[in-house]
Amino acid sequence: MRAAVVERYGGPEVVALREVRDPEIRDDELLVRVEATTIGPTDAAARSGRPAFARLYFGLMRPRHAVLGFEFAGVVERVGSSVRRFAPGDRVHGALAPEPGAHAEFVRIAEGGLVAHVPAGWDPVDAVAIVDGFLTAIPFLRDGGRVRQGDRVLVNGASGAVGSAAVQFAKHLGAEVVGVCGPAHLDLVRSLGADRVVDYTREDVATTGERYDVVFDAVGTRSFRECRPVLTADGIYLSTVPSLPVLLRTRRARSTDSGQRAANLFTGLHPLAEKAADLALVGELAAAGAIRPVIDRVLALDDVVEAHRIVDGGHKGGNLVMAISAAA
User: Fold this and answer.
1) What average pLDDT does the segment 217-246 reach?
2) What residues are paired with 15 via a beta bridge?
3) Which long-range contacts link 302-307 to residues 24+ away (Cβ below 8 Å)?
4) To pair with 198 at 20 to 30 A between CA atoms, which of 90, 208, 293, 328?
């Protein structure tokens, strides 16, 4: 099969398309023909080895995993002898964990892994684009921020894959949402339901004096120290990008401590059962029209180097999807 392979750390140019061996499935696994996958900041970190702490997971001297990519949507090609929930021809979507491998024509995943049937009527692009951002945003806001009706939520990086999901889910929870993004994506964030949209090139939300119950930094560009002036007395700062000051302050979401707090949740390391429940919730909310995927553009696997360049640029709106097959 064809796959995008990374054998050394570096810029987008280190990614190469290669022929690699097809995955061999075990009795409890599915072989999925990938139609679409996503590429985002996690893939860029795995390719570049930056920030430095990413190497603790992806490999100290060279990438531990040659084929990147976590999210996928496609068609079940073959199933192991003990698989009961899926059959060849089923349309599925999900995410690989803990090892990547979705930037390829086929993936294998356990029946009990993070995989579900694609809701009727969804195409592969929508089916994969709705996975990543929401599986991150939901636990951050629901469990970390404990967002409820009437809370004020500030989302920094509101136009990215995670940020666009956060705006939608915070509105679903009944919050008043202010989204921060660049000038190119103001209309997009408004369309997602944000009550107010701030152009960060014209206004610094950290100096306005407004207060928020939750500040969710979905891109890691504002520190806890910078955001403390706009947090309520018991507000919480949440960031998808780990930093030592926040790690030292991180408290459990169920903590009863008072005062301003900060946390990183490492949602990718959450128990599989929790992530599976959230994937099911995403399907339910999407089917009800409460949320929708946000797609910046769709590129072919042949354009994987350009896809990495776009991600490194940091200005995409929503998900960047790679079409692996013509069906996408």
Assistant:
1) 88
2) 6
3) 302/17, 304/4, 304/15, 304/17, 304/39, 304/103, 305/12, 305/13, 305/15, 306/12, 307/39
4) 293
